[in-house]
C-alpha cells in the first residue's frame, strides 16, 4: 500500500495516557474524558426542578446527570458532546428521530434550531425557509402550524435531490418532551423567540433542559435572565464582542460558545480562555473550517491531535458540537480517531499508484481542479473539505489504480468512504489485479459534498497475502458527481 503523505496514524497523547493508565492499573475501560473523570455539581438553590409530570421525569435520569455535569466547571469536568441538528446521519435534521438517535449515540446535548410559525408556535427548522429540508417552499413565518405540519422532511441534511421521509416538522414542545429525561437542548436561532420558547419550557417542565443562546448585548441578556430565574444561557463570543465576558461580571453564563477563524484571534488565546474556563463552560464547534480555525471533525478522524484533542488541551473546550457523534464518543472513550479495523486494509484516495496518466489513472479534464497540490504534475482532482483530503470531481470515464498490501490470505469485502449531495450520485466498478470488472456499485447520496460516509460495495474478492492492484472505474454512461475519501478492504470472517 502506498504510504499516505499527509495523514498520520501516530498514537495521540490521549491514547498514550490511556495506555499508561492501564499499565499502572488505571481505568483502562474509560477514556481520559469519560464519565470516570466527571465530578458533579449541585443545582443552584433557585433552579426549577427538572422535567416532571405524567411521564415520571425527574430523579437521577440522563437529563439530570447532564444538567449537573453542565454546572461543573472544574478541571475534571466531563467533556459534553453536542449533536449538531441532532443525529442527522440517521434521521432528518431537526427531527424527533434525530433527537432520539443523538442521545442513543451518547450525546448529552442536542443542538436544535427554533423558528416561529405565522401563528407564533416554535417549531424546529434551521433555515428561514422550508425549501432545503422539506417538500414545501417559502418562509417558516408564512406557514401556520397546521400548514407546516402538512410538509414532509427530507433525509439527513436535505437538499434539492434528497428523498422525502414520512417525518413531519416537530414543534419545540414535542422536541423538549423527547429530550426531557434524556439530555439537554441547545436552542439555536431561538433568541428572537425567547419568550415563546420560555413558555414552552415551562409548560413541558423542561426549563433545566433548555440552553438559550445568543450574541445579544449583555444588558438585553441580563434583563431576560433576571426576568426568568433558572434560565440556562450560553453566550456566543468572538473578537468583536470580547468585552462581553467582563460585562457579565459576577453573573456569568453557564457557558460561552467560542468561535475563532484563526488561532491568533484574541478569543482563542490562552489567558482569555483560562479566565472563561474558570467561570463557565467553553463550547467549541468542530463541524467545519472557520469555526475553530481548522480543528474539525474530519481532521480529528485522521488524527485527534489535529482537532478534538487540541480543542480540549489547548483551547479549554468542555463542550464540543460535532457532526460525528459516534466518532467523538469513541474518541472520548479510547483516544482514537478513525482507525483501521483489525485485519482490514485501507488506502486513501489521493494515494493512487505511481505512473501518471494512462498508467495509474485517467482523468477527463486537465489539471487538479481540487487545488490541493499533493501529487504535482498529475491531473487527479485532490481537494480538502474541512480537513478531509479526497479525490473530487469524479466524472464518467475516469479511473484510478491503487496498490494494496494484503496481510493475510482470505476473502475481502470492499467499501468506499464517499460524499455527494446528488441522487443519483454516481456508480463505479472494481477490478482486482487486471481481472474482470465487478458489477456496478451505486454511490448513495450523503446529502452533502463535505459529509462522508463509508458505504459497502457488495464486492468481495479472494486475495492472497501480498501486493494486489485495485482499479476503480467510473462508467461514462452514468451520472457522476461524487467524492472519494478512501477504499477499505475488510476480511470476511463468517
UniProtKB/TrEMBL annotation:
Keywords: Signal. Residues 1-29 form the signal peptide. The keyword Cytoplasm does not apply. Residues 79-332 form the GP-PDE domain. Residues 345-490 form the CBM6 domain. Residues 35-63 are annotated as: Disordered. Residues 35-49 have a biased composition (Low complexity). CDD domains: CBM6_cellulase-like, GDPD_AtGDE_like. InterPro entries: CBM6, Cellulose-bd_IV, DUF4996, Galactose-bd-like_sf, GP_PDE_dom, PLC-like_Pdiesterase_TIM-brl. SMART domains: CBD_IV (SM00606). This is Carbohydrate-binding protein. It comes from Isoptericola peretonis. The lineage of its organism: Bacteria, Bacillati, Actinomycetota, Actinomycetes, Micrococcales.
Amino acid at each position: 500500500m502506498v504510504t499516505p503523505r499527509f495523514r498520520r496514524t501516530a498514537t495521540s497523547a490521549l491514547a498514550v495516557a490511556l495506555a499508561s493508565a492501564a499499565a499502572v492499573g488505571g481505568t483502562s475501560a474509560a477514556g481520559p474524558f469519560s464519565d470516570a473523570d466527571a465530578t458533579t455539581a449541585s443545582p443552584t438553590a433557585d433552579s426549577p426542578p427538572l422535567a416532571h409530570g405524567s411521564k415520571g421525569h425527574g430523579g437521577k435520569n440522563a437529563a439530570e446527570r447532564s444538567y449537573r455535569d453542565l454546572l461543573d466547571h472544574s478541571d475534571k469536568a466531563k467533556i459534553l458532546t453536542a449533536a449538531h441538528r441532532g443525529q442527522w446521519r440517521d434521521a432528518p435534521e431537526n427531527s424527533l428521530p434525530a433527537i432520539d438517535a443523538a442521545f442513543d449515540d451518547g450525546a448529552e446535548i442536542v443542538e436544535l434550531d427554533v423558528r416561529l410559525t405565522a401563528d407564533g408556535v416554535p417549531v424546529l427548522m434551521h433555515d428561514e425557509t422550508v425549501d432545503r429540508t422539506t417538500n414545501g417552499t417559502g418562509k417558516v413565518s408564512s406557514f401556520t402550524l397546521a400548514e407546516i405540519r402538512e410538509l414532509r422532511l427530507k433525509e439527513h441534511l436535505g437538499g434539492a435531490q434528497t428523498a422525502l421521509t414520512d417525518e413531519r416538522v416537530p414543534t419545540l414542545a414535542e422536541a423538549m418532551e423527547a429530550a426531557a429525561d434524556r439530555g439537554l437542548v441547545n436552542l439555536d436561532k431561538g433568541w428572537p423567540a425567547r419568550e415563546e420558547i420560555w413558555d414552552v419550557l415551562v409548560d413541558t417542565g423542561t426549563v433545566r433542559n433548555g440552553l438559550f443562546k445568543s450574541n445579544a448585548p449583555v444588558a438585553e441578556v441580563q434583563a431576560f435572565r433576571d426576568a426568568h430565574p433558572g434560565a440556562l444561557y450560553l453566550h456566543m463570543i468572538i473578537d468583536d464582542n470580547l468585552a462581553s465576558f467582563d460585562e457579565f461580571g459576577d453573573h456569568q453564563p453557564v457557558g460561552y460558545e467560542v468561535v475563532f477563524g484563526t488561532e491568533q484571534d484574541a478569543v482563542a488565546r490562552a489567558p482569555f480562555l483560562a479566565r472563561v474556563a474558570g467561570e463557565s463552560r467553553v463550547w467549541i464547534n468542530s463541524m467545519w473550517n472557520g469555526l475553530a480555525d481548522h480543528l474539525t471533525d474530519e481532521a480529528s478522524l485522521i488524527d485527534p491531535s489535529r482537532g478534538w484533542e487540541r480543542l480540549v488541551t489547548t483551547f479549554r473546550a468542555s463542550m464540543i458540537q460535532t457532526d460525528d457523534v459516534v466518532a467523538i464518543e469513541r474518541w472520548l472513550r479510547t483516544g482514537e480517531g478513525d482507525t483501521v479495523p483489525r485485519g482490514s486494509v485501507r488506502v486513501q484516495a489521493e494515494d493512487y499508484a505511481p505512473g501518471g496518466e494512462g498508467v495509474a489513472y485517467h482523468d477527463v479534464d486537465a489539471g487538479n481542479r481540487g487545488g490541493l497540490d499533493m501529487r504535482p504534475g498529475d491531473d487527479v482532482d485532490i481537494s480538502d473539505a474541512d480537513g478531509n483530503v479526497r479525490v473530487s470531481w469524479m466524472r464518467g470515464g475516469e479511473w484510478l489504480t491503487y496498490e494494496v498490501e494484503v496481510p493475510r490470505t482470505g476473502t475481502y469485502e470492499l467499501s468506499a468512504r464517499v460524499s455527494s449531495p446528488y441522487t443519483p450520485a454516481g456508480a463505479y466498478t472494481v477490478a482486482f489485479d487486471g481481472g474482470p470488472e465487478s458489477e456496478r456499485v451505486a454511490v448513495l447520496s450523503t446529502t452533502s459534498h463535505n459529509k462522508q460516509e463509508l458505504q459497502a460495495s457488495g464486492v468481495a474478492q479472494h486475495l492472497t497475502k501480498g501486493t494486489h492492484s485495485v482499479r476503480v472505474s467510473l462508467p461514462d454512461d452514468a451520472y457522476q458527481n461524487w467524492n472519494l475519501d478512501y477504499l477499505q478492504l475488510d476480511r470476511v470472517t463468517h
